[in-house]
Structures are given as C-alpha cells and as structure tokens.
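Recap from last week: sequence in, structure out.
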Amino acid sequence: MNNATMEHLNTFSLTNPATVREGFATQRAAGLRAKDAAEALGLSEGAVVQAHTGAHDRSLQSTPLVGGQWLAILQALEACGPVMALTRNETVVHEKDGIYRNLTQEGPIGLCVNPDIDLRLFFMHWHAGYAVTEPGRGGVLAHSLQFFDSMGVAVHKVYARPASDLDAWNALVARFADADADAGAQHTFQPRAAQPVVAPDSSIDVVGLRTAWAAMQDTHEFFGMLKKFGSERQQSFRLTQGEFCEPLATGVVTELLQRAAAASTPIMVFAGSKGCIQIHSGPVNNIKPLATPGAAQWINVLDAGFNLHVRTDRVVSAWLVRKPTSDGVVTSVEVFDDTGEVVAMFFGVRKPGQPELTAWRDLAETLERL
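Predicted structure tokens:
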C-alpha cells in the first residue's frame, strides 16, 4: 500500500467504515491474516469486524450479536454439533474441535467442561460479539462467531466445521442478532491499556511468600497468594527460585512437545486470552516446526481435533514451577512472551484427587535449564 493510501486510512479509519473495509481488503489480498491485516491499518481486529457490519459489497460480512448473552450464545452452539473453538494471544493459538456442552456460569466466570471443549470463561472481559462470514479455503464460505474485549482484542472465536449443522447455526445467529444494529448502534473500542507496573522486589515480603507457597493445598490458591503479596507472576518465580521454580531454556516448548509425543505422555495445554483459557488434555503426536517470512518461527501440533501454534521466536522466558497440593506436588511449565503475560502452561494430565503422572514429572524435571 502506498504512502498516500496509508495517510488516507490513518485520517479516516476510525470514522469511515468504507475506508476501513477498503484497506482491510487490500491487506488481505496481500496475504496477511485477519489480525495482522487489522494491525497493519493501526486498528484492532474488533474495530475492523465492526466496520464490516451493515450493508456493503465486501466479502467479509459481520452481524453484531446482542451483548451480555454470552453464556446463552455458547449454550446454543450445542445444537450446531461439532465446531472448532479457537483462543489465542500474541504468541500462541489453541484450536480444538468438539461440541459445546455442560456450560455453567457463576457471577462473571463461566465453565465449559468436556473432554474436547474445555474452557474457563471470564465474561467481565467480553465486550462485543459478531457472527462473521468470509470466503474460506476453496471458495467455501467460512462461518464464525467472534468475541472481543473492550480494546478490540479477540477473546474467543468459534468456527463452523464441515460436520456442523448450518441450519442450527443460522438459527442461532438470527436469535442473537442485535436488533439495535439496524438503527446504527456501534460498538466502541478503546486503545490498548498500558501494562501494569510491577512492584519493586524490595516491596515484596519474600519470606511470607515462600511460607504461603509451601503451605498451598490446591493450585487454585496460587492466584490469591500473588494478590495477597502484591507480586507479579514472574516476579514470584524469581523470588522463590530454587525450591519452587527454575528458569528453563527459551526453546523449551519445542523440546517439551517433541519429547511428549515420542514418549506418548499425555499432557494438558492451557492457552488463552484475558477472556478465555482453553485447555487440551491428552496426547500430542504430529509436531511440526515452521519458519515463515521474516523472523517468525513456529512449532505446531497438527493433530486430528487439536492444533497448537506457538511462535517460538517471541518466547522470552520459561519456568519450571512446582506447587504443593494435598495430592502431592504439581509440576508445570509456564511460558512468557515480551508482553510479560503467561502465554501457555503445560501440565501432565491429572484428575483432582490424583497425584501427577510420574512420566510427566520426569519429562518436566529433565527439560533444558536456562
């Protein structure tokens, strides 16, 4: 795109949907994925999807969904049969096929607990949702539901699969379409917020933190412990390094996946956004590296029903973490990118009340150290 066109877009992109659609189509034609094409325009993905609502002649079409009905929308997906759940952050994309069943909500927190679709949903971060259609592979129309936070960052997406019931899908869209959208209602998205400032190490009660860590009886106590002591996640790892945490080599994701596949060790893979954590439990088999133009380096799991894509060149730190529980120590591998956020966590497959797999612990404890 030439400088004159970019200047035109920068001037009108936030107020002129037609200009956004024009620029987005140009970026997509150049081979960029939707998220990257939006960012090339200086916009969030949510803002671009919003610009495609209403009547226009572009191939991407979006319909706003009524806000606040997130649990009901996801529950209605069960009638659609097999679909694909996708949750991502800047570094990791987690894709899982299955049926949305067993959805519950308590306050702003939702659960979807199944062997295939396993989600932790933080609806306080869900701001806008859309039903989207766009050309897919081979010219076949792709149908998706896409949900965004207040900054236009995708928190969760659902894609129809060949086995999906499109009549049920279309009925869902018709049921939850926002009637006010025809009157010109628009979702607004805010600029991205700055990362929270990490408290200085000197302000943390390290002795108290270590004592509380050693006294944990459940991994879910960890979040409350960090809040109590005012410690950021990686900061807590540094301050308890040794007994509880050890830094790992930044190439650990590739090593972990390859070794788990070679030994048929079932693992749990947690990845997600601020609005959703998506979980895979089971073996991984087909591990493939991929280098793309530029600096991007990927390691991928390409299994039937489960795909994982980790951009390894963005991984800046990884930790082996040990958390005491009433069932024994639970060992995890936690991976961070340059945003400072944890982008993926790996565990051995484990049910509550059971000790973790010896094979997983042996694998994790012998990963390459930093």
